[in-house]
Every structure is written in structure tokens, then in C-alpha cells.
Write a structure and sequence with these properties.
3 helices, 4 strands, Rossmann fold
Length: about 100
């Protein structure tokens, strides 16, 4: 059984405030975090390592979180990715 101290999380979000908030919360809990500021950089990082958990903003410009999900599902090296969280955090200025 792994503890969160063994986790390596990939965080992908184009909103810097959301990215920093989630990053800091994870690090405070002893989790190693790699961050990408857009979907393209997130896809590049996925080619460099296999995270324990991916947290991605679904509403980014292309490639968005859905595109990243489809990429992960299509790649054999991610077949055993057990912990995957897909989220959407809308900043206040986007809410109507």
C-alpha cells in the first residue's frame, strides 16, 4: 500500500491562481508535484514520467482536459494509472 508521500502528481491548469493553490495544498501534505501551465505542456510532461495522479482543468483552451483524458486512455503506458482526478475550477471572473 502506498502512502501519499510516494505519490507523484501532475497538475495541469492554465489559471495560475488555481495552479498555485492546488500545488501548495498537495506539497503541504508531502506529495511531489509537477505542474504544467497549459494542456500542451501537460502532454509533454506525460511523455517524461508516469504520475500517480493527474489533476487537470477540463475547461482549458485546446488541448483541454478532455483531450488529455483521451490521450491517457489511448496510451498503453497509462493503462494501470489507478488514481486519476479530473476537475474543473472556474475562477470568479468566468462565472455568470
Amino acid at each position: 500500500m502506498s502512502t501519499v508521500n510516494n505519490w507523484e502528481v501532475l497538475l495541469i491548469d492554465d489559471d495560475p491562481d488555481s495552479l498555485n493553490l492546488i500545488h501548495d495544498m498537495l506539497v503541504l501534505n508531502g506529495i511531489k508535484v509537477r505542474s504544467a501551465d497549459n494542456g500542451a505542456n501537460g502532454l509533454l510532461m506525460l511523455k517524461q514520467f508516469t504520475p500517480t495522479l493527474v489533476i487537470v482543468d477540463l475547461s482549458m483552451p485546446k488541448p483541454d482536459g478532455w483531450d488529455i483524458l483521451y490521450y491517457i486512455r489511448a496510451m498503453p503506458e497509462f493503462a494501470n494509472l489507478q488514481r486519476c482526478l479530473w476537475w474543473q475550477l472556474l475562477p470568479t471572473h468566468r462565472r455568470r
